[in-house]
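Supplementary Methods S3. Input chains for the assembly prediction are listed below.
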Amino acid sequence: MTATGPGTATGPGTASVTGLLGEIADVGRDARRGGYSRHGFSPVEGELRTWFAEQAQRRGLDVTTDRNGNQWAWWGRPGRGAVLTGSHLDSVPGGGAFDGPLGVAAALAAVDQLRAGGFTPRRPLALLVFTEEEGGRFGVPCLGSRLMSGSLGADAARRLTDRDGVTLAEAALDAGLDPARFGRDDAALAQVGCFVELHVEQGRLLDRLPGTPPVAVASSILAHGRWRFTLTGTGNHAGTTEVADRRDPMLPAAAAVLATRRALGSRPEARATVGRLEPTPGGTNVIASSVDFWLDARAPADAEVHAVVEEITEAAREAAAEEGCELTVRQESFGDTVLFDPGLRDRLAAELGGPGAPVPVLPTGAGHDAGILAARVPTAMLFVRNPTGISHAPAEHAEPADCEAGGRALAAVLESLAGGGS
Ligand code: HGY
Ligand code: MN
Ligand code: MN
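Predicted structure tokens for the full assembly:
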């Protein structure tokens, strides 16, 4: 696969992937954290939705928003057997520029390239932008695809709240959506022949391969879930409360955080992270009355995830008892191990590989909308090389030449899938 120069367009009237990313480079920048904070149903995400709709309409695509807030841009009439591609535009707090937007920009650039080459889809083809994939605001990842596929109930979703206590229903109303329409969308899914998501690799498997190939096909996603731990003690004065009188929930919280690393000791493929810990009331001179923290746990097998969580919960339980605190643990989301559709996976690998240069087929620990939809329709993913592997951080990066190679790979895949070939 030859790489065009960094950021160069791929022909007259066509946009480059990096050029499209550059158009939103200033939207949702987070001055405090660095990177971007672009959350579901926020004004920033509204700006990105408008940008995507304009880009799609400029390409003659018909843009609609479905009952769950996901954007669809159709090339041709909607219909069954449709080939879908796309990703998300929201981010984690202080996230990078590529996680999500790279897949959306590559989809738009692929449409340009196909059209410039005289291609007309013989199957319906649509670009999708899913809402709140990161769960950065309402806590449940892949919100839009979970609602669409039915793996998250509409009532439970409407009740989700952000850090300010705003419900998803209220935020959706503010964004011009009707939350009463949230829910499983069998009609939309009935149109889907397959979904292919291009995404920046979140890890360094591609970069470690000889010749650092720019693109890989995905094989699987780790099982993963999120749990909310709440430790309750007695709020008190930091300077006057003797140790014997303390019931400080921060101590069992700290014990649980340390246990996350111990739980991974014998499980090299598992992952356990506490990235968010919130004491109440949160005063420097105050013994917290309660501490909430969220555990993100992942592993190749569902049972291993639950074993990791149980080990960490036991550590929290023991430390809470020792400190005279109460513990509650609530599972907030869970997704089984995802094995992408083997037929689609192998077709993409064959399409993109060359004689003596097979395209890598790699696993990932990162969750994606393609992983959620995999339970209902054939899905696949393409990864673009990430030289440092860093993601969910401002330093996330992909080389322009690799981004363009990703756009060309996606165009080739869409041409094969939507060209009417078998
Ligand atoms: O958390 C994840 O793995 C994904 O980036 N939402
Ligand atoms: Mn992400
Ligand atoms: Mn993502």
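The chain has two domains: 17-222+337-418, 224-335. The first strand starts at residue 62 and ends at 65.
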